[in-house]
Design a protein that fits this description.
421 residues; alpha/beta; TIM Barrel; 2 domains; 7-stranded parallel beta sheet; 3-stranded parallel beta sheet; 34% helix; 13% strand; globular
Amino acid sequence: MTSSGPADNAVHAPRFGVNYTPTRGWFHHWLDFDLDEVRADLDSIAALGLDHVRVFPLWPVFQPNRTLIRPRAVEQLVAMVDAAAERGLDVNVDGLQGHLSSFDYVPAWIRTWHRRNMFTDETVIGGQEAYLRTLAEALADRPNFLGMTVGNEVNQFSGAPHPDPDPATVAEADAWLRRMVDACRAGAPGKMHLHAEYDAAWYLDGHAFTPRQAAVLGDLTAVHSWVFNGTAQAHGFDGAASEHHAEYMLELSKAWATDPDRPVWLQEVGAPAPLVPPEQAAAFTRATVENALTSENLWGVTWWCSHDVSRELADFPELEYSLGLLSNDRQVKPAGAEIRDLVAEARAGFRAPARRTLAVAVDVGGDEDAPHRSVCGPGGAVFETWAKLAADGARPALVLASRAQDAAHLASRGITEVVQP
């Protein structure tokens, strides 16, 4: 599988992949890396018909000191990417890990006695730039290397509800993101580089990371859709708001995009138990993916995650143990079989999604900082209006209130009617 860039989405079915969670040792496997185990995991992923994986180096393992980026760790990452290529899998690499499944992985050189702000301290930023550039450089010549994601939901460090945040303003977060993406581009020019936030960027008033940043910075927009954010609690796992949540977030991102053809990547989405009962995970998976496929300019769908977390590992939130498409012994679960079928169906009969002529207006009190963006989240007027329309069978878009009377903008997106929440 050769790497395909964002523009390819105009003529091809979206990409289908998975966030790779190793079966042996979870992400701690970097501490005693076993390439044969990785190969076996990748074989089970490829057997589902998927075409890419997103992988996660652990930042403290790879850069334990600001001026030490461990060559052996980088070599192991390259070996993983090469093993993926042998199985027809492209690879996106997340750099700053950062935050994974309720655990934080940050190096000692920015904590406790060396406490420094990861978003604003120039010394720390220089170390982060060197790290991202080094990973990108090591992989730049690999045809199956898609590019870098700056980190996994690093925005969770910037404020509440994090217990020990690294505070940042919107301007500081903006500057930090630009420097991180530029570092990735410096290491691997011409590849697909982006950043990715959890949904506070879209739903949390006052959050330093904003919808505009997500929809403008980097080569495409990443969306992480999780219905445990209040959606499934209020609407049920099989309510329209839940089954269309990923689609809603894809469409919400387009409200801020300055390019109507900007690709959007559904980079994380899963079926979290018990809000989604295990026996209903396959049905939820199909509904979520089928609805997401109705969004234009969808680069790809990357499910969270590949394999279940081993019960031998302690202290994870309960839902984290069962999110895999495959069990911890690499057996296909019902949701995995559903994804395998969806991939085959999409590739056999993909048709470009219909344009959305109806849109819901989004007024967040200012397009740049979005001070009242909670209207877009579960329970908010924008969210609930959109969900009601979806429940009634409509396929609404979303448009910023500041653009709702802009004839040229509406025409560029095919919008002919705008409703107010």
